[in-house]
Design brief:
- The chain is α/β, with parallel strands linked by helices.
- The strands form two sheets. Strands 1, 4, 5, 6, 7, 8 and 9 form a seven-stranded mixed beta sheet that branches. It has a two-stranded antiparallel ribbon with strand order 2-3.
- A hairpin with a 3-residue loop joins strand 4 and strand 5.
- The chain starts with a helix and ends with a strand.
Length: 220
């Protein structure tokens, strides 16, 4: 039978081994990755069929994606960002990350505009995964998954998280500027109308964390 001293020595060696084992480090790394995010910018982008419409020379979705690369990514220092896209479904295009090279393939366009579901998903996700956040919502249309009044009601329940809204389109447009303005106003965000590529680029740069460090505290 081992003595108490030997048992203590064996236990100490096991604990020491655990502290340095690669498997434990991997596990701890996974746990650290699930810690609440301090500064999260979540972009919700409309990828319904109408985003394939031409704005100046290119589809609106292509222009928006390039603007994100040029004007948003260089201004994300010390922030985490994620991109959710919505059409008939809500899809992660970029899971929250600090990797500013994560924007690769332009989202494939879908059907309708499930904006309400996208916002609902975003609010639920940040409630479980972030300490503070802000949303940028970019669309060229109107929600057709739930009434505007219902979305506004949900926004009032989640008004601690600012939503900056951007309506994209030239000339006559299909989005509702009053609705987007209301959505932003309720949450402490701002509404911008981007009727040209240049205006969209200027808007996204102004909404980037470097120029607009606004965040809202996530309430459980």
């Amino acid at each position: 039978m081992k003595s108490i001293a030997v048992l203590n020595k064996d236990l100490t060696e096991k604990i020491t081994g655990l502290k340095t084992s690669p498997s434990l480090e991997t596990a701890l790394s996974g746990l650290r990755e699930t810690e609440p995010i301090d500064k999260l910018l979540l972009v919700l982008i409309d990828k319904s069929g109408s985003m394939g419409g031409i704005m100046e020379t290119l589809p609106k979705i292509d222009i928006a994606w390039q603007v994100f690369k040029d004007e948003l990514m260089p201004n994300m220092t010390n922030w985490t960002f994620g991109i959710l896209a919505f059409d008939d479904f809500v899809t992660w295009i970029v899971m929250p990350t600090t990797n500013t090279k994560a924007l690769t393939t332009v989202p494939v366009l879908g059907g309708s505009t499930h904006m309400g579901e996208a916002l609902q998903f975003a609010w639920n996700w940040v409630r479980s995964n972030a300490k503070s956040a802000r949303f940028i919502l970019l669309t060229d249309g109107m929600a057709n998954d739930m009434p505007k009044e219902q979305i506004i009601s949900m926004a009032k329940e989640n008004k601690s998280i600012p939503i900056d809204t951007v309506g994209i389109g030239q000339g006559t447009f299909d989005y509702d500027p009053d609705f987007l303005q209301n959505l932003s106003s309720i949450t402490g965000g701002i509404f911008s109308a981007a009727r040209s590529v240049r205006l969209l680029a200027d808007t996204i740069k102004k909404l980037s964390p470097q120029e607009r460090p606004l965040l809202g505290t996530v309430k459980e």
